[in-house]
Design brief:
The chain has about 675 residues and is an alpha+beta fold. It contains 13 helices and 36 strands.
Length: about 675
């Protein structure tokens, strides 16, 4: 997540050579990148090496739908598809510890009732491992040392809470380990698959951790985490011998440190910390579980090695790989790694790294059709909010405004403020399809880690408590002000766009600050915070108190008043600028009613709105044909509002399930496309 420089519009006059280059580059139009190349199925993604080092797996299209593929690690030409999903893409797959099967989760139509499936590598036989209705599976632990089973959580008994089961990988048999009648939010198991900790939410929004002994949960908590630390403190896992428990821990400090706790004595020591950002993850020895390197992500992702052998490998990868790299998969022998490389202005690629001899072999590029495309760099920025808070942000500029790739706008262009969801998530540095798409259409793109974003310490998160639609929104407005003063854009040519909380921010922008943005694109955004909290999924029960403390408590008169005041629905009559809304009909997080309500309120006031619903989607658009269809509408909507370029909608809606509910006439080409 980001850094800043102010660029006066007149500055180019003092640099004639750059000005001349800019004029020359502007004369040659940048080729339009087809939507399908950016948002269609990737060629290959999510590579993983089997624990025994014999196999390579990945996700790739089969008959137009993402499925699981496998090949011998030394014979990639013998690749074969193991699954045959016909509609819903598989997006998450992982190896069983015995290397005999691959496991994956999938839902139906975006309902987020994820079931667990297994497919045998040798025979290709597939089976449902959690054959239940309206059930969401959780993986509790997969051990490298227990090969024949894993621990999972299943909420088929009570949708609010997950019972823990041992899953026998050969037979598929489930054996109950712990019946969760104590309303525990989750469990932590060691490398022998023994439950060691249970976590329960507290009335103040924090969490208590209880020791589990012989599958019995003790009554007195062994660790307590208050609301301020709740999103920045959690166990990472045990060492193989079970003697040390690693934590991300912000207790007693602002940013989360990597802490090692001696289980027997209870004492803890700080392994690593960074005042700029939380330490969220690391590399752990596959045999001992001891930490070898930690990861920190302030402006950009970086590894910091603690083990000399791993340091030599990471240093080698840093020298040889031009861009951000991350280790994604390792063998049990730890002799081979799968490494992803992100060059930012080129499509990401995946590599095999053999530690002996330090040999790197390129396996594939996720989107080879984008190799050589006019992709642009991304520039971290540090923007100051009006109260002095540092907002790490990321800026992408179209080639027409930055032909030399300096990160400084030679002239102002229209801008899209692209707001991340969550809100307890963050934007990061790297290749981003939406940044590339919008920049290619002629827009500057700015993504801001507004207060409440994760990764920058607990204080940064807590500054957003009860600030939906207020200081959180002020941060976005302040970022726009920075962009205007920096010569990136002009005040009248800024759109706001985002999904989930980003969709809420879009609605907030068009209601609470109705003249700040030229138009808005809301994707699965809540319009009514009160009904949003009424309809959260039952499996979010454990986080309900944290929602109440950070958003507003609907069980109190004061909380209800606050939620009403911060709900864009109640101010729909203030909307003056064009609005496009996209919604999945099966969304379990932001119910379709959230979009229906504000569309109805706008119609009642004769305020135009364009509204598209996808009956086979949930919280976002997983099927590429649907994503392409919505983005086809979105770019033509933005073009009519901001004046950028657009690829015609054409037949983009035909293979999708898009239902244009309102406002087809407001978007160029949409009426004709919908009619077809």
């Amino acid at each position: 997540m980001l850094r800043t420089t102010l660029v006066a519009l007149s500055a180019v006059a003092f640099v004639p050579s750059v000005h001349a280059q800019s004029a020359q580059a502007a004369a040659a139009p940048v080729p339009l990148i087809e939507r399908a190349k950016l948002f269609g199925n990737p060629s290959k993604i999510a590579a993983a090496i089997s624990p025994d080092g014999r196999w390579l797996s990945w996700i790739a299209p089969r008959d137009g739908v993402l499925n699981v593929w496998v090949a011998p690690i030394d014979k990639p030409d013998q690749a074969r598809a193991l699954t045959a999903e016909k509609t819903r893409p598989i997006r998450s797959v992982f190896w069983a510890p015995d290397s005999k099967s691959l496991l994956f989760v999938n839902d139906k139509g975006g309902d987020e009732n994820f079931l667990l499936y297994g497919v045998d590598v040798a025979s290709g036989r597939q089976k449902v491992l959690t054959p239940f209705e309206k059930t969401r599976v959780q993986v509790v632990n997969i051990s490298r040392h227990v090969k024949d089973r894993i621990l999972i959580g299943v909420n088929n008994r009570d949708p609010r809470w997950h019972d823990v089961y041992s899953l026998d990988l050969a037979s598929g048999k489930l054996a109950l380990v712990h019946k969760n009648t104590g309303d525990y939010a989750g469990f932590v198991a060691d490398e022998q698959l023994v439950l060691r900790l249970a976590v329960k939410s507290r009335p103040d929004g924090g969490s208590d951790y209880f020791r589990v002994v012989k599958d019995k949960v003790e009554e007195k908590p062994v660790a307590q985490v208050d609301l301020d630390d709740a999103l920045t403190t959690s166990p990472l896992g045990f060492t193989t011998d079970g003697k040390t428990l690693y934590w991300n821990d912000s207790r007693g400090r602002d940013t989360a440190a990597l802490v090692a706790q001696d289980v027997a004595g209870g004492t803890s020591r700080v392994v690593a910390q960074d005042a700029r950002a939380d330490i969220a993850s690391g590399l752990f020895d596959v045999r001992t579980g001891q930490v070898q390197a930690y990861e920190v992500d302030f402006l950009k992702h970086e590894y910091v090695a603690l083990d000399k052998d791993v340091k030599a490998d990471l240093d080698h990868l840093k020298r040889e790989m031009k861009g951000d790299f991350q280790v994604r998969s390792r063998t049990d022998a730890d002799d081979k790694w799968i490494v992803d490389l992100d060059p930012v202005s080129a499509p990401p690629s995946t590599w095999l790294y053999e530690r002996k001899g330090k040999r790197l072999t390129r396996l594939f590029t996720a989107r080879p059709e984008l190799e050589g495309a006019p992709l642009v760099p991304m520039f971290p920025q540090e923007i100051k909010a009006r109260d002095g808070l540092n907002l790490v942000s990321y800026l992408s500029l179209p080639k027409s405004a930055d032909p030399t790739g300096s990160g400084k706008a030679a002239r102002p262009v229209p801008m899209v403020l692209l707001v991340h969801g969550g809100p307890w998530a963050r934007d990061t540095y790297g290749y981003r399809g939406y940044h590339q798409w919008l920049a290619n259409r002629g827009y500057a793109v700015l993504s801001v880690n507004y207060r409440g974003s994760t990764g920058f310490g607990k204080g940064f998160i807590s500054k957003a408590d009860l600030q939906w639609g207020r200081k959180m929104h002020d941060d976005l407005v302040d970022a726009v002000e920075w962009a205007v003063k920096s010569g990136v854009t002009t005040r009248d040519k800024v759109a706001i766009m985002g999904g989930s909380y980003g969709g809420y921010a879009t609605l907030a922008g068009l209601t609470f600050t109705p003249t700040t943005f030229a138009c808005g694109v809301d994707i699965v955004g809540p319009s009514n915070l009160f009904t949003l909290l009424q309809t959260i999924p039952p499996y979010w029960e454990s986080g309900k108190q944290q929602f109440y403390k950070r958003m507003g408590d609907p069980t109190t008169e004061e909380g209800r008043a606050l939620l009403k005041e911060r709900s864009p629905l109640n101010f729909a009559d203030r909307i003056q600028r064009p609005l496009l809304i996209g919604q999945g009909a099966n969304d379990p997080r932001v119910n379709v009613r959230e979009s229906d309500q504000i569309v109805a309120a706008m119609k009642e006031k004769n305020i135009p709105v364009t509204y598209i619903v996808f009956p086979d989607e949930g919280h976002g658009f997983a099927r590429p044909v649907n994503n392409i269809a919505f983005n086809a509408v979105a770019e033509n909507f933005l073009s009519s509002c901001l004046g950028g370029r657009a690829e015609a909608i054409g037949t983009a809606l035909a293979p999708s399930t898009a239902q244009v509910k309102e406002g087809a006439a407001a978007v160029p080409g949409l009426q004709q496309a919908a009619a077809k």
